[in-house]
Every structure is written in structure tokens, then in C-alpha cells.
Write a structure and sequence with these properties.
This protein is an alpha/beta fold and about 450 residues long. The chain is built from 19 helices and 14 strands. About 50% of the residues lie in helices and about 15% in strands. The structure holds adenosine monophosphate.
């Protein structure tokens, strides 16, 4: 399925093309058509699944002149993120967004609210503005984002109260990672005959595929990829990227670094695509750089390695990607590069797949492993007559040690470029992952505490 299969405005499709979104994520595939029809929706989807686009794109497409949309998010960070994303999608529609949260100027926010089509707000500040009569909005579309987080943070009553200020004639969407009872109850009172969207997860494992992940910083992606290619030396591999832009960029980068790499994505004409696929099948191309869409239906055996340059949005896409290797009883390896920003996506994938944390080898590690391989190779050789003849001739000029050293030099030609160390050590990575888990928990506890403090202050 493609974005052009939906009845989205041409300004949106053009923009998606430009941003490089090629294929709708699962939640987008399910939610966009239903939202376009005007139905209310309850969707079970976490951050990182592409949920902002899942509601943002259809609403931007439907929105008539003079209409407004209100998005309610639990935190200021999420409000800013959603606001930026909507603004990005709406470039050719000239859409304005207002971001509304506590601790920042009232006057400026009130002005922005009046002149914006999309208002993205945290519950506390929004209710404040509504109750004091400082703003009067009549949104045609209301979206609750991360509803379960809002519940955890003690915002449920605020949310219920906010709905007293919005018109009944509206389309309402509720997004939540989990569906605890109070959220189900809330859904019953604020949504009309909603369509429920859940993305089911099933446990999938393939014994033949070894799955590794490496924790790096964003600016290390390319170095990490090259280093791992140098180390693993795959004979046939696919590097998966999220967007068409990334595909072009990485394919150029790898070719520039001397690899037999070619990109594959939907913007290439049919002939060119077929050439690339044929080249990959016939072992003329070692590395195929592709988006999920382009690789769909690609039937190639003997793929030894799958690289996730970025983690995919859905765990299902992960499973789909790595299933390109380890086919027909052969061994395969799936390698994912993960930045701390992607830890949430990682933990979703880890619910259905078993990934082992690894360290990116240093230049020294690669050299050592090369030496071991050479020693193994030499031990297994049964010398031919010609070889004996060569050594006998050389012996007229050199002693045996010198001859042996010269041969070893011929075998060890491997040059490894790049930084000595790339990415995090296992210890560092484990610490970072744990810290991110703790932060998520703390964020909930901390915010709940500060909400209680606020309500105490108000009562006084
Ligand atoms: P979200 O779940 O809305 O926070 O989105 C997670 C990230 O995925 C954001 O950086 C989006 O820009 C990106 N994204 C969302 N949908 C797609 C898509 N269909 N293709 C590629 N990237 C996407």
C-alpha cells in the first residue's frame, strides 16, 4: 500500500514525496482511510509507530477553511514534537500550528491560538485558558495523544473537563499505547461509534537468523555501517533505510567507499529497478540499499546479512526485513544500528524478537580476526608442487623466515579505515538503555507529583 492509495490532498502527497516517506506504517494504513471517512477512532499505537502522521495527514487533508483541530498531549516535549511534525506535513497547505503548554507566555500562546488551524496543547494550560475565558475555540477535530500517559499523570479529570468546552459536532480520535479501563470508559463518553484499531503482535523467531544490535550516536551511523561491513565481509547483503532520500545517500556513500552497492526505491524507473534487482540476484551487486517498499516481493536467495541502518517503525517491518536472510535452511545475520532516540522502538521490537547487544569492533579487533583467519587458512593448505618449486627458488636468495614473512604480507592486505572506536561499549549501552527505562518511569511518577502539587496550590 502507498500513500497515493489514500484520498489525501495533492499538497500532502507532494510533501510526503519530498520528505521521503514512501510507505505508510501499519497504524497509518489502518487509521488514514477511516479518519478520512469521518469516523471516530480509538487506536492502540505507541510513539515511534508513525501515529502523528496517522492522524495528521488525513485531518490536514479534510480540513476546510475556518476549521480548527485540537491535539491534547501529556507532555510539553510531545506537544512540541507533534506541532513540528504537523507543520512539516502541512507546508504546501500553509497550515499554522500553535503549541500550548505551561510555564511559557500566555499572551503569545493566545495570539498563536487565534491564528492557527492546529492547536497542540498539554491539558493543564489548555484548561486554564478555557476556564478563564481567555480563549474560545470550537475545534472540528479533537485528538487525544498518548491517553494512557495522561491518565498516569493524573490528567483524566482535566481531560473530561476540557471536553465540556468543545462542540459536540466534532470528529474525535484517541491514541493510546495501552487500554486500561479508565481510558475505555473515557472513550465511551467522548467518542461516537468509534472504529477500534489494534496492531496485533505475534511472537516470531527464526532459528537460522542471528540478531545483533549496536548502540551508536546519530552521527556515527555511516562509520558504524562501514566498520561492520569491513568486519562481517558479507557476500550478499541488504541495507534497509527509512526513506528514499536515505537510500540514495547511503548507496552513494557506500559506492564512494569502494563497495559494490546500489540503491533500490520506488522513484526509479522500472527498467533501472529491474537492472538493479537482476544485478543483485546474479551476484554482480553485493549490497542492495533499499526501503521496505522497494524490497517487497524481492525474491532473492543467499542473502547473508540484513542491516537495519535505521530501526523500522513497526516490529512487523523488522520481522519482514530480517526474513530476507536465513532462508532455505541457510544461516543469516540481522544487524541493527540503534541510537538512544530509538530505544522505545527497540523495546517494542524486543517484545517479538530476540536481539543481542554487541560492540562495534575496533580497528585492532578487525586486524586480529583477519590474522586468525589467515592462520587457519595456512594450516589447512596442502601445498602443491608449484608452491614447493617457488620456495626452492626463493631459498637461493633468502632464508626461510624472510620468505615466510613476505608471503604473510601478501596475504594480509586488509586496510581498515575510520575511527579507532565507534559506538558504545556493552557496559555504556546497557547503562543508557537502563537509564532510558528509568527515565520513562520517573517521568510518570515525577509528573504525577507535580500535578498534585498544582492542585493543592489551586485549592489554597
Ligand atoms: P511518531 O510515531 O509519529 O512519533 O513517528 C516516528 C518517526 O517516524 C517520526 O520521525 C516520523 O517522521 C517518522 N515516520 C512516520 N511515518 C513514516 C513513514 N510512513 N515513513 C517513514 N518515516 C515515517
Amino acid at each position: 500500500m502507498q500513500f497515493s492509495d489514500f484520498n489525501l490532498k495533492k499538497e500532502i502527497l507532494k510533501r510526503l514525496e519530498e520528505i521521503g516517506f514512501e510507505k505508510p506504517s501499519l497504524v497509518q494504513e489502518k487509521a488514514i482511510p477511516v479518519i478520512l471517512q469521518g469516523r471516530d477512532v480509538v487506536a492502540q499505537a505507541q510513539t515511534g509507530t508513525g501515529k502523528t502522521a496517522a492522524f495528521g495527514l488525513p485531518i490536514l487533508s479534510k480540513m476546510q477553511k475556518g476549521e480548527k483541530a485540537l491535539v491534547i498531549t501529556p507532555t510539553r516535549e510531545l506537544a512540541i514534537q507533534v506541532s513540528e511534525e504537523i507543520f512539516r506535513f502541512g507546508k504546501y497547505l500553509g497550515v499554522h500550528t500553535a503549541t500550548v503548554y505551561g510555564g511559557s507566555s500566555y499572551a503569545r500562546q493566545i495570539k498563536h491560538i487565534a491564528s492557527s488551524e492546529f492547536i497542540v496543547a498539554t491539558p493543564g494550560r489548555l484548561l486554564d485558558l478555557l476556564k478563564s475565558g481567555r480563549i474560545d475555540i470550537a475545534p472540528k477535530y479533537v485528538i487525544l495523544d498518548e491517553a494512557d500517559e495522561m491518565l498516569d499523570m493524573g490528567f483524566l479529570d482535566d481531560i473530561k473537563e476540557i471536553f465540556k468546552f468543545v462542540p459536540n459536532d466534532r470528529q474525535t480520535l484517541l491514541f493510546s499505547a495501552t487500554m486500561p479501563n479508565p481510558i475505555k470508559e473515557l472513550a465511551k463518553t467522548i467518542l461516537k461509534n468509534p472504529e477500534f484499531i489494534t496492531i496485533t503482535k505475534k511472537q516470531v523467531t527464526n532459528e537460522n537468523i542471528k540478531e545483533y544490535f549496536y548502540v551508536i550516536d546519530e552521527n556515527e551511523r555511516k562509520d558504524a555501517l562501514i566498520r561492520l561491513l569491513d568486519y562481517k565481509n558479507p557476500s550478499k547483503s541488504i541495507v534497509f533505510c527509512r526513506t528514499k532520500k536515505d537510500v540514495d545517500d547511503i548507496a552513494d556513500f557506500l559506492s564512494g567507499a569502494g563497495f559494490d552497492a546500489k540503491g533500490l526505491h520506488g522513484d526509479m524507473d522500472q527498467r533501472r529497478r529491474e537492472d538493479v534487482i537482476k544485478g543483485f540476484k546474479n551476484d554482480k551487486i553485493e549490497i542492495l540499499v533499499a526501503t521496505d517498499v522497494a524490497a517487497r516481493g524481492l525474491d532473492v536467495n543467499n542473502v547473508t546479512h540484513v542491516f537495519n541502518y535505521h530501526l523500522p517503525l513497526d516490529p512487523e517491518s523488522y520481522v519482514h526485513r530480517i526474513g530476507r536472510t536465513g532462508r532455505a535452511g541457510k544461516e543469516g545475520m540481522a544487524i541493527s544500528l540503534v541510537t538512544p532516540h530509538e530505544f522505545k522502538a527497540l523495546s517494542r521490537i524486543q517484545k517479538i524478537a530476540k536481539l543481542t547487544l554487541k560492540e562495534i569492533p575496533s580497528i585492532e579487533d578487525i586486524k586480529n580476526s583477519e590474522i586468525t583467519k589467515i592462520i587457519d587458512k595456512i594450516s589447512s593448505i596442502d601445498p602443491s608442487e608449484k608452491a614447493i618449486e617457488i620456495v626452492e627458488k626463493l631459498q637461493n636468495e633468502y632464508d626461510l623466515l624472510t620468505i615466510a614473512t613476505k608471503f604473510a604480507h601478501m596475504l594480509f592486505s586488509k586496510e581498515v579505515d575510520g575511527k579507532k572506536r565507534i559506538g558504545k561499549s556493552i557496559k555504556e549501552a546497557t547503562k543508557l538503555i537502563q537509564r532510558s527505562k528509568n527515565q520513562n518511569n520517573d517521568r510518570r511518577r515525577g509528573n504525577r507529583y507535580s500535578r498534585n502539587k498544582n492542585s493543592r496550590r489551586k485549592r489554597r
